[in-house]
Structures are given as structure tokens and as C-alpha cells.
Amino acid sequence: MAHRLIWISALLLLISVNLSSQSSDTDRGFTGDETENGVSVTSTAVAVLDSKLTQIFFPVVYIIVFSVGLPTNAMAIWVFLFRTKKKHPSSIFMANLALADLLFVIWIPLKIAYHFNGNHWIYGEALCKVLVGFFYGNMYCSTAFIACISVQRYWAIVHPLSQQKRNNKLATGVSVCVWLVVWAITVPLFLYDQTVKVTNLDIVTCHDVTRPSQSRYPSIYFLIMGVVGFIVPCIICIVAYVQMLRALKSSMTDTNIVQKRRKAVILIVAVLVMFLVCFTPSNIMVMVHYSLLSLGVQDSGYGFYITTLCLASLNSCVDPFVYYFISDEFREHVRNTFLCRSERTAQRMRVSFSALKYSKKNSTYTSDSGNTQSTSY
Q1: Which pLDDT band holds residue 338 (cuts at 50, 70, 90)?
Q2: Nearest of 188, 178, 170 to residue 138 by alpha carbon
Q3: Taking Cα atoms as reference points, which of 21, 93, 122, 140 lies closest to residue 268?
Q4: Where are the beta strands (DSSP E) in 154-311?
Q5: Which of 102, 103, 104 is nearest to 76 (CA)?
Q6: pTM check: above 0.85
Q7: Which strand ranges, in their side-by-side order, compose the sheet holding 39-41?
Q8: Interior CA angle at 299 toward 296 and 304, to 5°?
Q9: Whole-number Cα distances in Å, 215 to 175, 289, 293, 305, 371
Q10: Which residue spans traverse the membrane (predicted)?
């Protein structure tokens, strides 16, 4: 899954680089000359907004994200909330991560229609702000909860006997704080215009073009968000992962413990790979783009910038597969859900299977013991 995602990411970035390289180096996308009727954008922005990249390729990617992300994240939330009886901190954080993905995915049809309509927004300023808010809210919720999962996995390895109930309460409290903080810091997105009339294309864009008179405000905001919402969680994930490897290396004597802990490491590595592949390009480009914009420096990376934002949305349909392929418990609950087995029925089947397995093992031991006695006489 990670390998395929990397190839998709590389394809998207190559297309955007090719498009950007064909534009004039003296053009600067993302803004333009403000007029009474709107904004007259540069030739680079016109080329990108009127290209097959944004009008065909982007909506196809978003259709895939919506088609895969909606049912899989809904299934993940169902499993975490209603099928997982024994709650633990990692499942609490994963449920919140799935919820963040789902809240973003349900708004994607508006973005699909926007791109298929020639990057022309017809749903009004309010809905555009909601879409933008959920887009960045999902991104920074995802980075925050992935950081929480990293820390929790490290804590579970270093302190495996810590109190479960107390940790669950702490995980719930942390999750609530993450939601409150993230949605509080997305409020500034609602304070300036997200829809802009592009006069030389006769379209209304949503978040794709910034008024020159308002460019300084989002520049400062996104630079701060890039540091707080991406760099800090990224450092937390990397530090937690390195410390986890050290803790695992120090307990290599017990094979059973190592096998159990390796699953935890595999999960966090998979999530970390998704984190870096999906969010690193977009957040770096956000900070670079707005830094150049605030300084008035000429930049022709507009196509690359919006491509990385499209790439970031892929994370919303990848996370459920990470849960499925790594977590045995999650995989079992998904199978039981598809087979319409209640939790009680599944529990009886597990008990019966365990009893049968123990019976066979005990029978084999008795048979071997009897053979030993008969041969000794």
C-alpha cells in the first residue's frame, strides 16, 4: 500500500513539475492584479486553472479518494465504536483519526464538481469557507492524531503494565483537546475571502487565488500553521519512533514479547510513511509559497503547490487499510461485520476455537506420554 501511494505521489508531482516548467519564470501564481470586478491573474495561474491537470486529473483523484475513503472510514469508525469492546488508547486515537478523514471526505463532492466545472465555484462564499476549513482541519487533525498514536505506541512498549483505564481517560482527554485546538486555529480561514472572481477567465475560484490586498494575512497564518501543525508533530513522530526502536532492541531476549511489539512498530512505521508521503510535500510547499508571497518574490511553482494539496487528500483513504493490514483485532472485527456476526457470536466462536485447539494439544500430549510409558516397560 505504501509502495503504491509513493508511485501515485511521484506521478502527480511529475505532472505538476512539467506544467510549471512550461510557464514563464517571471510569472507568479496564486495572486495577481486586483481590479474593481475581481483579480486578473498571471499567465502561469491561467495556464494551471485552465489545464487538464486541475480540470480532469484532480477530480479523478478526488473521486478515488471519495469512493474509497467514505466507506472505509465509516467502517473503521463503526468497528472502533461498536465492535471493539475492549477499548485502548490506540483505538481511541485511531477512531478520531478515522472521524477526521470522514469529515473531510463527505465534502469532497463539492471539490469534484468545482474542478469538473472548470475551477468555477458556484456554491457561494460560505460553503467555500466550510470546504477549506474541513480540508485544513483534516490535515492538521491527522498530523496531531498520528503524533498521538506514535507517543502512545512508544508508551505501550516502554510501560506495558501501565493502568489501562487511566490511559483511556487520558487518550479521550487528549483527543478532545486536539479537536478543540485544531478547529480553533482554523477560524482565521473564515475571516478573509476564499472566493475570488478571476476576470481574465470569467470564473470564481475557491481558495485557488488570493486577493493581493489580503495576501499578507494568510501568509503569516500558514507559516505558523506549517510549524505548529506539521513540523512539531513530525518531530514528535520521528523521536517516538527512534525511542521505540531502542526500547525494542533492549528486549530482544523474549521471542514472544518481541513478536507482539514488532506489530506495534510495524503499525507506527506504516502510519509514519503515510504521514511523510502525504503531508510533507504539501506543508513544505505551503510554507515556501506563502513565504514568497509575503516577500513579493516571483515564483512559478503554482501548479506544484496545488498538486501537493491534492496529494495530501490521499491520506484519507489510506489510513483504514493501514488499520486492516496491520491490526489483527481490527481485521477480525471487519470480517465479523461483513458476515453479520454479533460480538457475542464472535466471542463464542473464539472460545470454541480456543477450547478445540487446547483439546487437540492436550490429546497429543497424552498420546505422546502413553507411548513413552509403553516403550519404557
Answers
A1: low
A2: 178
A3: 93
A4: 195-198, 203-206
A5: 102
A6: no
A7: 32-34, 39-41, 195-198, 203-206
A8: 135
A9: 33, 11, 7, 16, 86
A10: 56-81, 93-110, 130-149, 170-192, 220-243, 264-290, 302-326
Cα(16)–Cα(307) distance, integer angstroms: 6
Instruction: Tell me the β-bridge partners of 196.
Output: 205
Determine the 3-state secondary structure of 33 from DSSP: strand
All 3 cell numbers of residue 358?
487446547
Is the pLDDT score of 212 beyond 50?
A: yes
Is 209 within 8 Å of 196 (Cβ atoms)?
Answer: yes
Query: What is the model's pLDDT at position 232?
Result: 92
Q: Where are the alpha helices (DSSP H) in 205-254?
A: 216-226, 232-249
At 377 the pLDDT is 40
344: which 3 cell numbers?
457475542
- Residues 6 or more apart from 166 whose CB is under 8 A from it? none
Let me know if 189 is exposed, middle or buried by CB neighbors in 10 A (0-12, 13-18, 19+). Answer: buried
Secondary structure class of 296 (helix, strand, coil): coil
Domains and CATH numbers, the chain: 2-341 (1.20.1070.10)
Distance CA 294, CA 288 (A): 10
Burial bucket for residue 330 (CB in 10 Å: 0-12, 13-18, 19+) = buried
